[in-house]
Request: fold
Amino acid sequence: MNGSIRNVSDTALWVAMYRALESERRDALFSDPFARRLAGARGEQILDSLPRGRAMSWPMVVRTAVMDEIVLRCARGGCTAVLNLAAGLCTRAYRLPLPASLQWFDADLPEMIDYKRTLLAAERPRCRYEAVAVDLREPAARRALFARIAALGGPALAIAEGLLIYLADEDVQALCRELHAAGSFRWLLCDLASPQLLKMLQRTWGRRLAEGNAPLRFAPAAGTAFFAPLGWREAEFRSTWDEAKRLRRTMRGAWLWNLLGRMMSAKKRERFRRFSGIVLFERA
Reply:
């Protein structure tokens, strides 16, 4: 089936299609003029083959928009280098108004790097850009990349967008420890799912993703506290639900959940707020 997910890299085509659809709206929250080209026909086929594929665009769109805001704020606030881990088909280095002096590294598997490089060959990045072909599952290669960026000296931002949920707990621990040990990484930006969200996603897309060797795994019960022993403290938590209301990209029927939320205790409201979020961590 053309719309089947064959591996975790195919999820990048799917997410690029969400960016394409948002960019084509009259009230678009961001403009990614490259997204449809990168998603291609397979990206649309994957999206349409997934249960509730188009209906679930809102959290992906919100994630992109909020991360855009945070990346720009870091880039304009002293960050000198960005490492985009498992970058997939992210085009922030090409579409955001970044400082020309910023050093941006997109790191991913060689086939993904080659695919994006080919389709964007005629485009010009907004900053100093390098695509790095690397298998981040290999500890030695991963540490060498982190050390190389640390050697640049300035404060760096690491982005793990749409990555951690596919990793086992021990893999997330190793990644975060090594980023901290590298020294120059001041910030870590990622999206984070709760165990409740993971269960919901498993029911909706879990089987399809597992069959494509992209099982959903990481959703720590401790939330952002999971990262504290690894050297990272929560600096900012942006609830996907709250940000969707702010950006006017809520799900159908959101009004009912908002009404029910008013009846919850403060503790339950906070748990609901942290159902899913975008998190900026700082070195502890």
Notes: The first strand starts at residue 81 and ends at 85. The longest helix spans residues 57-75.
